């Protein structure tokens, strides 16, 4: 009997969703879409696996609850939910309690609510999506999959800050994020580069509007550039990445910025957008090719190369670099710039292969191989949910 799972990724002003058939060896995407502009002038589009994109209106000012009600109604009208067995959600923060996907119940929701202070810009929206599905489909099993879970097995030294130890025990530690992406890519590596190579010392570069690097060995996370929040590490589309805490104190004490204003600056007004003064979109910056755009791209590559060096130390060497996500998969000049600054590791790209976005982009004589591997966080979530719901049904 066919079975399907609806995967949702709820953000502050949008809900991305994808429907998967999960009765085969791997999840098969049936359709995907997004409700965007929530709280203002929302709209909804659905792109079936076969056929043209479909656009639908949503009531002005609609929030997550009304948007999900509209999504469910549209998918019902399309006959897409006839075989639905569950919904699965990307949840940014699992803290120390949730280190694997879980079936959601009242106790899980209470645990996720307790983590809101650790991810105030993400966790409330994830919870809103969960509650909205429960309202629209009472009794439908729901699964939470966590961006932090892939990193949970790291050595304590990779997680600890040099604060009084009581803070570590209270959960103030480096969690790492983008874990669902890293998990998916790491699982693909044996097929892409061979089983033996996939067990080596590898840095995966998840480069998108949110960006981070992860050091893996034997397919497991060793260290990540993101820490207590998704703000740490690499320079990103609108986020600063690593910053001296003294700068934050200066902004508050000397510049007179409120905590809310500092939060907005660090998360929404910095990164590629802030440095260029033009755009957070790498495509726009590459096309502009002016001094400000080049400055932003140069700094992005420099920060990535510096952070890559720290992960080489964590791995005690380097065998391969894997690029993924929007920038990592599609921006050949950015890959080339990062590789050029990392030549000391033995990494040399093949210019033609890199320009063509080939699977292997390292030169024949490179002692460190380089790869481009598309990520699919939604497929990873669907696979987790299918396994978990099948196990729950058997129990």
Task: Explain what you see.
The strands form 2 sheets. The chain has an 8-stranded mixed β-sheet with strand order 5-4-3-2-1-6-8-7, sandwiched between helices. It has a 5-stranded mixed β-sheet with strand order 11-10-9-12-13, with helices on both faces. α11 crosses α12 and α12 (291-315) packs across α14 (332-341). The model has no long low-confidence stretch (mean pLDDT 93). It has helices spanning 64-77, 106-114, 123-136, 156-159, 165-169, 179-193, 195-198, 245-253, 259-268, 271-276, 282-288, 291-315, 325-330, 332-341, 351-355, 377-394; strands spanning 4-10, 14-21, 28-36, 43-48, 54-57, 84-91, 102-103, 142-146, 201-207, 211-217, 220-224, 320-324, 369-372. The chain has 395 residues and is α/β, with parallel strands linked by helices. It is built from 16 helices and 13 strands. A hairpin with a 6-residue loop joins β3 and β4 (43-48). The chain folds into 2 domains: 4-146, Nucleotidyltransferase, domain 5 (2-Layer Sandwich), CATH 3.30.420.40; 194-377, Nucleotidyltransferase, domain 5.
């Amino acid at each position: 009997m066919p079975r399907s799972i609806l995967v949702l990724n709820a953000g502050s002003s949008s809900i991305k969703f994808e429907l998967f058939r999960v009765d085969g060896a791997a999840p098969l995407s049936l359709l995907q879409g997004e409700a965007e502009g929530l709280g203002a002038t929302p709209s909804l589009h659905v792109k079936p696996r076969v056929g043209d994109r479909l656009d639908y209106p949503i009531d002005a000012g609609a929030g997550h609850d009304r948007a999900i009600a509209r999504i469910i109604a549209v998918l019902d009208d399309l006959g897409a939910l006839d075989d639905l067995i569950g919904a699965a959600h990307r949840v940014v923060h699992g803290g120390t309690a949730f280190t694997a996907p879980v079936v959601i119940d009242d106790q899980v929701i209470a645990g996720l609510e307790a983590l809101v202070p650790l991810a105030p810009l993400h966790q409330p929206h994830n919870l809103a999506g969960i509650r909205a599905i429960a309202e629209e489909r009472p009794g439908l099993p729901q699964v939470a999959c966590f961006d932090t879970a892939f990193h949970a097995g790291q050595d304590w030294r990779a997680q600890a800050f040099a604060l009084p130890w009581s803070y570590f025990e209270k959960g103030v530690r480096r969690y790492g994020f983008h874990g669902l992406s890293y998990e998916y890519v790491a699982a693909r590596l044996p097929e892409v580069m061979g089983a033996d190579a996939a067990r080596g010392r590898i840095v995966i570069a998840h480069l998108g509007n949110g960006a981070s690097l992860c050091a893996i060995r034997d397919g497991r996370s060793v260290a990540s550039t993101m820490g207590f929040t998704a703000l740490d590490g690499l320079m990103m589309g609108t986020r600063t990445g690593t910053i001296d805490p003294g700068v934050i104190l200066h902004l508050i004490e000397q510049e007179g910025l409120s905590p809310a204003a500092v939060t907005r600056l660090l998360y929404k007004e910095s990164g590629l957008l802030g440095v260029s003064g033009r755009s957070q979109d790498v495509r726009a910056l590459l096309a502009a090719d002016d001094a400000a755009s080049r400055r932003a791209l140069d700094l992005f590559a420099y920060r990535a190369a510096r952070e890559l060096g720290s992960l080489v130390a964590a791995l005690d060497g380097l065998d391969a670099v894997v690029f993924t996500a929007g920038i990592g998969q599609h921006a050949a000049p950015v890959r080339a710039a990062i590789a050029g600054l990392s030549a000391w590791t033995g990494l040399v790209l093949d210019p033609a292969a890199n320009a063509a976005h080939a699977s292997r982009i390292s030169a024949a004589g490179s002692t460190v191989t380089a790869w481009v591997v598309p990520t699919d966080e939604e497929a990873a979530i669907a696979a987790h949910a299918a396994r978990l719901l099948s196990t729950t049904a058997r129990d």
